[in-house]
From TrEMBL, chain A:
The chain crosses the membrane at residues 20-45, 66-85, 146-170, 190-216. Belongs to the binding-protein-dependent transport system permease family. HisMQ subfamily. It holds the Pfam family BPD_transp_1. It is found in: Cell inner membrane; Cell membrane. InterPro entries: AA_ABC_transptr_permease_3TM, ArtM/GltK/GlnP/TcyL/YhdX-like, MetI-like, MetI-like_sf. This is Amino acid ABC transporter permease. One of its GO terms (cellular component) is ATP-binding cassette (ABC) transporter complex. It comes from Azospirillum lipoferum. It is a multi-pass membrane protein. PROSITE patterns: ABC_TM1 (PS50928).
TrEMBL record, chain B:
GO terms for biological process: amino acid transport. Keywords: Cell membrane, Membrane, Transmembrane, Transmembrane helix, Transport. SUPFAM superfamilies: MetI-like (SSF161098). This is Amino acid ABC transporter permease. GO terms for cellular component: ATP-binding cassette (ABC) transporter complex. The chain crosses the membrane at residues 20-41, 62-81, 184-204.
Amino acid sequence: MTYDFQFDAVLASWDYLLAGAWLTVRLSFGAMAIGLVIAILCALGKTSGPKPVRWLINAYIEVIRNTPFLVQIFLIFFGLPTVGLRLSPDMAALIAMVVNVGAYATEIIRAGIESIHKGQIEAGLALGLRPLQVFRHVILKPALRTVYPALTSQFILLMLSSSVVSAISADELTSVANNIQSQTFRSFEIYIVVTGIYLVLALMFSALFAGIYRLAFAYTVDRR
Amino acid sequence: MIRAFGYNEFLFLLSAVQWTLLLSVIAFIGGGIVGLFVALARTSDVKPLRLLATGYIQVFQGTPLLMQLFLVFFGATVLGIDMSPWVAAAVGLTLNTSAFLGEIWRGCIQSVPRGQWEAASSLGLRYPGLMRYVILPQAVKVAVPPTVGYLVQVIKGTSLAAIIGFVELTRAGQIVNNATFQPFLVFGIVAAIYFALCWPLSLLSQRLEARYAAPSR
């Protein structure tokens, strides 16, 4: 192998890379937060809404889950301006991520809602808990416990797939890498470093989420 | 020069579907073969093998598919190989698929009850026979629904080959859109074609899952 590795150009743009990584994290958290609101509404609509609403929500979920994220981005970034909605790349990226994660999270939340049996609520009331206590201890906490692991892994998936928004030049980590690459031509060096950054982010967040899970949901007895 | 979106443009999109399908088939078959070894290594009794497979899966599941494609594409240059976007996409998607299928199949292999392993080895079967005649046939049953479901991910993943310049369905959509500038129509059709490919597989996967889940309850 005669290739001469040069990481100087990459390291010279370290601040720029960190700024890109920071936007990746912010985009992911922002999209997850807004996506969760949509998901909760859609999950409620899907479990207890009228038939046309349920049908619409199902169509949304199936369309998003069975088409590539990249095509969804193109539809939003190139499509919306033709109806008069001009978007910056960052904004289009955020909207695409929200729409995408909203569909996946709806199914997760729905599973959480359906995991609470009616009998448990009745049992809570029968034990003399007040309705608010029943909601907090019997409904909310077990439901959160059910959806938490799936939601956190969905967050990691979202963060990793956000690299695709570089296709419309939002200023996140992968776009920054593309820019440095086109200035320095150290393609392999820059992408190996950026891949490493993504890996560190993914491992860091899954460790963080696992830690939070252990703290927040440690109350349960072993159910086997 | 802006053209209207007509029959020829539609045919161009349709003919690009064959590349999406071919890429999906290659990634699925290649990924399946490598993935089987990843799954076997991941469930092996040999610790270094297990660690190696765990690391392999961790790296591919912890980094973006797009970065993996870039690294294969530009990594080939480092090794002094001149690789076309087509080969780079096929290799990158194969590696990625192998890691995900390996992890799915690990779960299926481990879902076969311990007693089956013990019974098989006490009947005198060595590892190859034990796997071939006892464990894998039972694991395959569990593996079919999630594997069909993962095929949808593979097909969607091939769209990223567009970014490294390989003309499959998504890239064809970009080309047509640049000529006609009717993004809603063009990418709407592209999305509809992907949907027509993926949705039946999603439904099949759900149906298979319901069928296999029923008797065991």
